[in-house]
Write a structure and sequence with these properties.
two-stranded antiparallel sheet
C-alpha cells in the first residue's frame, strides 16, 4: 500500500514537472503543453490504435476542433463554452476515476482562453504526426551527448578537477561555493566506505593521516581501487541494476538457482579488473554470440563470455514450476526488457507493453521492436525451461577420465560380485545343513529356482525354512566377517569414483541456431491477440542514430541481434547509455544523481541539475583514449574532486539558497546501505571472512520465523533442529549471502535491502522502528557486540579508557575527545552497577551473569547502533 501511495506521489510530482514548464505568463501551444496531457490521459480511447470513442480524435488541434458525436471539443477563446473542459471539470472524463489534476485542467483552460494555438501549421495527413511529436523528440535525454568546454570560475583554488569547475559555475551564480575540506580521518572513512563498503582499519587511518606527500589522497584512492573489495562493493551495485537473485521466484516454492552465483562472481571479477564498460555490456547482452558453437570444451575465457549473459537470466522465472506457461513465459520476456531498459537506457520501456507509453515518446511498436532483439533467445513458443538452458562445463578430457574411472570401479564391483556369490553359496550350504534331511533336496531346488518361476509349493516351503533362502542384503546377519570384507570393496569403489571430474554447469542465455521467431505486437499486451509482425529495432525517438538491427547476421549461426544491439549501445554515440551509467556512479559517491531518478531519464524523471557536467563526464567516460570506458578512471575523476572532499556541515546561506543541496555546496550525510551496515559490523568486531567468490552462504528460517544465515535443518515437526556449523562462512560479506526472493536476510531487509521486482535502479533509505528493534534484539547484533567486547578486551587490556579509545578508532575512524571518554566510562560503570543489582535477585550463583562483561557488551551494542557508525559523513 505504501509503495502504491509513493508511486502515486511520484506520478503527481512528474505531472507537476510537466506543468511547471508553463509559467503563468508563457504562451501555451498544443504541441508543447496540451498534447502531453492528452497523450497521458485521453489518446488511449481517442486516437490510438484506431480507437475513437464517440468518434472523437484528440491527436491534433484541428481534429479536436472538429469534435465528435457531441460536437466540437472546444471553442477557441471561450473555455466556459468548451465541451472538453466541462467534462474534465465535472470529472466525467477520463472514465474510471483517472481524473486530471487541477493544474492540468487549468493549463487546458488557459490554452483555450488564449485561442488554442499551435506552434506550427498542422499537416493534413494525421499519420504524418505519428506517435512521436517533434517536441517529444527534442527532450533533453534524447539529444546527442555534447562535450562542453570546462567553465572558468572565480574560486580556482577550490577547483581540483573539471568536476569542481562545473559545480562551482552554478554555485557562484548564486553566490555560493564548495565547503571546506574535511579532515583526513573523515576522508579515508568516507572514501573507504564509498569504494569498498567497509571501514578503514586504525592502522590505515594513521598511515593516511600522517602521510606528508602532496598526492596522498590520490594514492589512497588508487590503493582502494586496487583492492579486491572494490569489485565486491561495485559489483553489488551492478547486481541491483541486473536484478540478481539466487532463486527463481514466481511462486511460493521459489526454487534455488544452483549456478547463478557464477554471474555474481563474474561481475565482481570484471569490476576488479576494470573491464572496459563497453565490453562489460557486450558480454552481458551477447557473450554467447562471441564464441563458436557448439558450446563444448570451453576455455576459461569462453566460459566467462557465457556466464556474463546471466544478466539476461536474472528475472523471476516460473516456467519450470508447473504454472500457466503462456503467462509465465511472457512474464520472463517482459521483465527482462524492463531490466535492460531501466539499467542501460534509464527508460521505462516496459510501460509500452500494452499501449503507447503514457508519458515518454515510446510507442507500443517500439516495445515489440526491442522485444524482437531478445526473442530468438527467449522464444516463448519454443521455450526452454531453466533446467534445459544449462550448459555443461564437462570437456572431452573430463568424459574420458570419467569413463576410465568408471571402468576401474566396475572392475572392482565385478570382483565384489564374485566374492559375494562365493559367500552366499557358503551361507546357503551352512543353512541348508540345518534343514531336516527329508526336505533338503526340495528346499535346494526351490532356492535355485528364480523367484518368478517358483511354484506355490516352493514358495510355501521356503517360508517354512526362510534361513535357507538368504538374500545378499542380509549377509551381515549370516556372516559378519564376510560383510566386512564386502564393505571394503564398496569403500574401494567409492574412493575410485571420487576421482571422477565433478560435472559443473553454467546458466547462460543462448539461442538455438535456426530458430528465429517472428515477433508480433500483442493487442493490449495480450498474447492471445497477436497483430502485425515487427523487426528488431532501437527506440524510434533516437532514430537520428541511423542504426539498424539486422534480422539475421550473415556471420553467425544465431540471429546476431543482441550482439548488433550491444555494439550499437556502446559505439559512443548513444545518447542514454553513458549518461545513465555515469549518473549511477555519481549517485553512489554523492548520494543523489545529477539526475535524481537514475532509472528514469524520461518525462516523469527529474531533470539534470548539471546537464553540462553530465555530458562532459559521459564523453570523458566513453571516449577518452587508452582509458576509454574505464570505470575506475571515472571513480578517480569523482572522488579526487574538491566536491567529494568537502564538509557536510550546513550553513544558513546554503540552506536558504539551496535547501536540498541539489547544487552540492556541501556533502550530503548518508546512511550506510544494508550490506555495508552488516559488513562494517563484521569488520569492526574482527570476525569478517575475506574469502572472495564461490557458492552463496545459505539462509534459513530460525525459530522465530526470521531469515538468518544458516543451513536449513528441519526436524520431523518441521521445526528447526540443531544448528549445522558453517565453519566461518557465516561471517562472509553480504554480497555472498544467498539472495532468495522469498527469504531476504532479516538484518539486511530491516535496512532497506531492495525488492528486485525486477531490479533496483535507486535504493531507498528509511529510518524506521524495526531498524532499532533489530539493533537491540537480534541474535546477530548481540553476538557481534559480544565479539567486539572480546576484541577490545584482548587488544586493549583491562584499562577502560584504552578500550574506549580503541572502540572509537575501530567504529568511527577517530579518537574520542575527553568528554566522550568520560561519558563512555561512566556508562560502563553505571551499567555494571545496574546489572550487578539485577543479578543479586538470582538465587543460584551459577546462573548469575558476569555484570562487568555484560556492561561492556551493552556498551558495544550501543556503539553499533549509533548514528556515527550507521551514517557516512
Amino acid at each position: 500500500m505504501l509503495r502504491a501511495f509513493l508511486a502515486v506521489l511520484a506520478i503527481a510530482a512528474g505531472r507537476l514537472c510537466l506543468a511547471a514548464d508553463a509559467p503563468s505568463g508563457e504562451s501555451l501551444t498544443f504541441e508543447q503543453h496540451i498534447r502531453p496531457i492528452l497523450k497521458t490521459h485521453c489518446l488511449l480511447c481517442h486516437g490510438e490504435e484506431g480507437k475513437f470513442e464517440g468518434k472523437l480524435d484528440l491527436r491534433m488541434r484541428r481534429l479536436m476542433s472538429a469534435g465528435g458525436e457531441s460536437g466540437p471539443s472546444f471553442v477557441a477563446g471561450k473555455p466556459d463554452e468548451s465541451l472538453l473542459l466541462k467534462r474534465l471539470r465535472a470529472g466525467e472524463m477520463p472514465p474510471q476515476g483517472k481524473v486530471l489534476s487541477r493544474h492540468e485542467i487549468e493549463l487546458i483552460e488557459r490554452w483555450i482562453a488564449a485561442g488554442a494555438v499551435t506552434s506550427k501549421e498542422e499537416p493534413m495527413d494525421v499519420a504524418a504526426v505519428g506517435d512521436i511529436a517533434d517536441d517529444e523528440k527534442a527532450f533533453w535525454s534524447f539529444q546527442p551527448v555534447q562535450h562542453p568546454a570546462i567553465p572558468t570560475v572565480a574560486a580556482r583554488d577550490r577547483s581540483r578537477t573539471p568536476v569542481d569547475a562545473f559545480l562551482l559555475q552554478k554555485l557562484e551564480e548564486r553566490r555560493l561555493s564548495l565547503s571546506l575540506d574535511i579532515e583526513r580521518h573523515t576522508f579515508i572513512q568516507r572514501a573507504t566506505f564509498s569504494l569498498l563498503g567497509l571501514p578503514p582499519t586504525p592502522d590505515e587511518v594513521d598511515e593516511f593521516s600522517q602521510d606528508p606527500s602532496p598526492d596522498a589522497h590520490e594514492r589512497l584512492i588508487d590503493r582502494l581501487l586496487a583492492s579486491p573489495h572494490y569489485g565486491e562493493r561495485f559489483g553489488r551495485h551492478w547486481l541491483d541494476l541486473a536484478g540478481y537473485s539466487d532463486s527463481d521466484g514466481y511462486t511460493e516454492s521459489d526454487p534455488v538457482r544452483a549456478y547463478s552465483y557464477k554471474y555474481r562472481d563474474w561481475v565482481i571479477r570484471a569490476m576488479n579488473s576494470d573491464m572496459p564498460f563497453d565490453q562489460f555490456l557486450i558480454d552481458q547482452l551477447a557473450g554467447d554470440e562471441l564464441i563458436p558453437l557448439p558450446h563444448a570444451n570451453l576455455t576459461t575465457e569462453q566460459q566467462d563470455h557465457l556466464i556474463a549473459t546471466g544478466f539476461l537470466r536474472t528475472v523471476a522465472d516460473g516456467t519450470g514450476q508447473g504454472v500457466d506457461q503462456k503467462v509465465a513465459r511472457n512474464a520472463v520476456v517482459a521483465e527482462t526488457i524492463k531490466v535492460v531498459s531501466t539499467s542501460l537506457l534509464g527508460m521505462t520501456v516496459g510501460c509500452a507493453e500494452c499501449h503507447n507509453h503514457r508519458y515518454d515518446p515510446i510507442p507500443q511498436t517500439d516495445y515489440y521492436r526491442m522485444r524482437a532483439i531478445f526473442e530468438p533467445a527467449l522464444n516463448w513458443k519454443e521455450w526452454r525451461a531453466p533446467g534445459q538452458r544449462l550448459v555443461t562445463l564437462y570437456t572431452d578430457a573430463d568424459r574420458a577420465k570419467a569413463a576410465e574411472v568408471e571402468a576401474a570401479a566396475v572392475k572392482i564391483q565385478e570382483e565384489r560380485k564374485k566374492k559375494l556369490d562365493e559367500f552366499m553359496e557358503q551361507i546357503f550350504e551352512r543353512e541348508l545343513a540345518k534343514v531336516p534331511e527329508e526336505h533338503r533336496e526340495r528346499v535346494k531346488a526351490a532356492r535355485n529356482t528364480p523367484d518368478k518361476d517358483r511354484t506355490p509349493e516352493q514358495v510355501a516351503l521356503l517360508k517354512d525354512f526362510p534361513s535357507a533362502d538368504p538374500k545378499p542384503g542380509q549377509i551381515e546377519l549370516y556372516d559378519h566377517k564376510a560383510f566386512l570384507e564386502l564393505k571394503k570393496f564398496d569403500e574401494q569403489v567409492a574412493d575410485v569414483r571420487k576421482q571422477k571430474p565433478v560435472e559443473d554447469f553454467i546458466s547462460p542465455l543462448t539461442e538455438v541456431p535456426g530458430q528465429i521467431p517472428a515477433t508480433v505486437l500483442f493487442y493490449r499486451g495480450d498474447p492471445d491477440q497477436p497483430k502485425q509482425s515487427l523487426p528488431p529495432g532501437e527506440l524510434s525517438v533516437i532514430s537520428w542514430l541511423n542504426t539498424a538491427i539486422p534480422e539475421k547476421s550473415d556471420a553467425l549461426p544465431t540471429s546476431g541481434r543482441r550482439l548488433a544491439y550491444a555494439r550499437h549501445l556502446t559505439d559512443g554515440r548513444h545518447p542514454l547509455v553513458s549518461r545513465v551509467f555515469v549518473n549511477h556512479i555519481w549517485t553512489k559517491h554523492f548520494g543523489r544523481g545529477i539526475v535524481a531518478t537514475p532509472g528514469d531519464f524520461g518525462v516523469l524523471g527529474d531533470r539534470p541539475t548539471h546537464p553540462e557536467l553530465l555530458d562532459w563526464l559521459a564523453v570523458e567516460f566513453s571516449g577518452h583514449g587508452v582509458s576509454k570506458w574505464s570505470v575506475k578512471r571515472l571513480h578517480r575523476l569523482l572522488v579526487t574532486s574538491t566536491a567529494y572532499r568537502q564538509s557536510s556541515t550546513r550553513t544558513s546561506q546554503g540552506d536558504a539558497i539551496d535547501p536540498d543541496n541539489r547544487l552540492l555546496s556541501r556533502m550530503s550525510v548518508r546512511r550506510l546501505e544494508a550490506e555495508a551496515v552488516r559488513d562494517a559490523i563484521l569488520s569492526v568486531n574482527g570476525t569478517i571472512n575475506d574469502k572472495v567468490g564461490g557458492k552463496p552462504v545459505p539462509v534459513m528460517l530460525d525459530e522465530d520465523g526470521q531469515v538468518v544465515v544458516g543451513i536449513e535443518n528441519l526436524n520431523g515437526e518441521n521445526r528447526p533442529g540443531p544448528i549445522i556449523p558453517l565453519h566461518g562462512e557465516e561471517y562472509r560479506r553480504s554480497v555472498y549471502v544467498q539472495v532468495r526472493r522469498s527469504r531476504p536476510l532479516a538484518m539486511l531487509d530491516s535496512f532497506d535491502l531492495p525488492t528486485l521486482d525486477p531490479n533496483c535502479s535507486a535504493r531507498s533509505s528509511s529510518t524506521v522502528a524495526p531498524q532499532s528493534l533489530m539493533l537491540m534484539n537480534s541474535d546477530f547484533i548481540l553476538a557481534a557486540a559480544r565479539q567486539l567486547s572480546e576484541r577490545l578486551q584482548s587488544a586493549a587490556g583491562p584499562d577502560a579508557n584504552e578500550r574506549i579509545r580503541l572502540a572509537w578508532r575501530l567504529l568511527f575512524g577517530r579518537l574520542p575527545n575527553d568528554g566522550e571518554i568520560q561519558s563512555a566510562a561512566r556508562f560502563v560503570v553505571d551499567e555494571e552497577a545496574r546489572l550487578t543489582a539485577a543479578a543479586e535477585a538470582i538465587t543460584d550463583p551459577k546462573q548469575r551473569p558476569d555484570a562487568a562483561q555484560w556492561a561492556w557488551i551493552t556498551f558495544c551494542q550501543a556503539l553499533l547502533g549509533s548514528n556515527e557508525f550507521l551514517y557516512l559523513d
